[in-house]
Specification:
Blueprint lengths: L1 E14 L2 E6 L2 E7 L6 H13 L1 E4 L5 E4 L6 E6 L21 H16 L5 E3 L6 E16 L1
Parallel strand pairs: 3-6, 6-7
Antiparallel strand pairs: 1-2, 1-3, 1-8, 4-5
Amino acid sequence: MIALLQRVSMADVSVEGKTIGAIGHGLMILVCAVKGDDEAKARSLASRVLRYRIFEDEAGKMNRSVTDVGGEILVVSQFTLAADTHSGNRPSFSPAADPQTGRVLYELFARECAAGGLKVQTGEFGAHMAVRLVNDGPVTIWLEN
């Protein structure tokens, strides 16, 4: 699985002009399942995200996790993270998991994040979404599991 973490001061996602998820200080996470991913990978990635230290401590060093700072999480599915861009002028999305598997693993990932005790909001799997965010730092980290 792939997760693109963005440390944010705010983020929201809307479908057809209606906001369906919004957070304050925390992480906006774009998530993609790739072929071969399973529930164990989704759980492992969520656990890693909850512990990943990209928030500043008192000394200004990235030494605290979203859990440590009591942050919020917005999880949005994005199959385009699996794009194969090695050749041509158009990406191939063949590395992405099929939509049914992608939905199951996306939803599991979000539930596992929520099980960590933080406020978790989500987008709508498969929908055309508009995502707004204020990247804090900016800090953007690519994680694969």
